[in-house]
Design goal:
163 residues, 47% helix, 6 helices, 2 strands, two-stranded antiparallel ribbon, Cytochrome Bc1 Complex, Chain D, domain 2, mainly alpha
Amino acid sequence: MLKRYIWGVVATVYFVFQMAVGNASAVELTEATRTVKLNDQGTQVVLTLKEVKQGKRLFNFACTKCHQGGLTKTNPNVGLGPDDLEGALPPRDNIKTLVAYMKSPMTYDGQTSIAETHPSKESADIFPEMRNLTDDQLYDIAGYILVMPKVQGQQWGGGKAYR
């Protein structure tokens, strides 16, 4: 009986700690951290905490099979880090171009459609996780992708060296 009581106390302390840490993490997302590029012209936008949280949830639902931690499992040479996103053609370092990519994905050089092999709105019949995502939800996912390097640093999309 005493053993059950001790485990109950340990579990309670653990869950209370997790709740406190989870709330602290949301508070750490300052306005500067949540400020990302909206378009190619460099217009900045400040994401709300709700948009970042929703983006995380949707990213985990639709993207983490291949992009856990910002890494690209199918091609570890190209991740979701800022340098890789900026180096793509066209650059995918802003919300507008990331949303366009999620609708109709192209190779890194921008020459060929990869909708048959990469989840997208264009291939929602093949990839059902994309089927019901709205433009607002794609915006939230893109925002989350752009915020994460500010939160995790080089670990986001940084490859095997940081895993």
